[in-house]
Specification:
alpha+beta; 4-stranded antiparallel beta sheet; 3-stranded antiparallel beta sheet; 15% strand
Length: 296
């Protein structure tokens, strides 16, 4: 990018293999230089190879999983595939907010990744619009523009929080919060340490339709029985199912949700999408549906 003379050095990436192998010749070429015919004819080009550094997964077998070619995951600086945090970063929520001002719809946003859906018949003009927006964002970041110029609606909605702030300053604050709060690490732990089932899900449903449940603040939800599913998006996988114990106050689930609640309080307008969690409009407290300790 820098060789063009009018473009800044790049820093966004794509979550995909660095190189692919032609199964006919055995030649290994960079993914970006691979012929379209090779990528279109050989599923092996899209595999999550066991032990590869780019995806960060352990214990995969050969051919276990493939990337979806029409779902492109953009990676932002700030964390590597092993979960190690860098000194600086560009949280993906900020990028997604900017892309929305360019009428570019993002499917899902994680702490440092953004998922873009492409159709089978997408044109060069369509994906070129995305590339232009990404390069413009990099330029605006280097210039450290004011948020009032970049995201005026956000500043107008939350003037007390963002008035006078700059793009680079917001990214720095958000990255430091994510790093110090260990949000990515806590989410990984919540998926690895599974909750303990207490009662069958149908029991929770019966209580739910008979007013036998209540919404409980996180600080009061330790060792309660969940009455509804809690799903973190992305990746869109439940971390808590009806009938499971919520765990201790410092356990994997409540630890992660508490850190997420803290993030939402610190950065209004960038709220995370977590199904099964409601927010008290007055206090901002996170609430989850639990079975009542005693029948109503």
């Amino acid at each position: 990018m820098a060789q063009a003379g009018d473009r800044p050095d790049w820093f966004f990436g794509v979550w995909q293999p660095d190189t692919v192998t032609d199964p006919v010749t055995g030649d290994r070429v960079p993914f970006a230089e691979a012929p379209p015919a090779l990528l279109g004819a050989h599923p092996s080009c899209w595999e999550l190879e066991p032990g590869a550094d780019w995806h960060g997964f352990d214990g995969l077998s050969q051919g276990y999983c493939l990337l979806d070619p029409v779902k492109v995951t953009l990676t932002c600086p700030g964390i590597d595939a092993t979960g190690r945090m860098a000194e600086w970063g560009i949280p993906a929520r900020v990028l997604t907010a900017y892309l929305a001002t360019r009428n570019i719809v993002v499917e899902k946003t994680d702490s440092y990744t953004t998922l873009i859906l492409f159709s089978m018949g997408i044109t060069k003009g369509k994906w070129g619009t995305l590339m232009d927006a990404l390069m413009d964002f990099k330029t605006l970041y280097d210039q450290d523009v004011q948020l009032s110029d970049l995201l005026p609606a956000l500043v107008a909605e939350h003037p007390g929080r963002y008035a006078g702030s700059s793009l680079r300053g917001l990214c720095r604050q958000m990255h430091d919060h994510l790093r110090q709060g260990r949000l990515v690490e806590l989410l990984d732990t919540a998926f690895q340490e599974l909750p303990v089932p207490v009662v069958p899900p149908q029991h929770c449903y019966e209580r739910l339709i008979r007013s036998g449940t209540e919404r409980v603040r996180l600080m009061e939800a330790a060792d309660r029985v969940a009455a509804a599913m809690v799903t973190v998006t992305p990746p869109g996988i439940p971390v808590l199912m009806p009938g499971e114990n919520t765990g201790g106050p410092d356990g994997p689930l409540l630890g992660y949700l508490t850190a997420l609640e803290s993030f939402d309080r610190s950065f209004p307008g960038f709220r995370s999408e977590t199904h099964g969690v409601t927010r008290d409009p007055e206090t901002g407290d996170y609430l989850i549906e639990c079975v009542r300790a005693d029948p109503a």
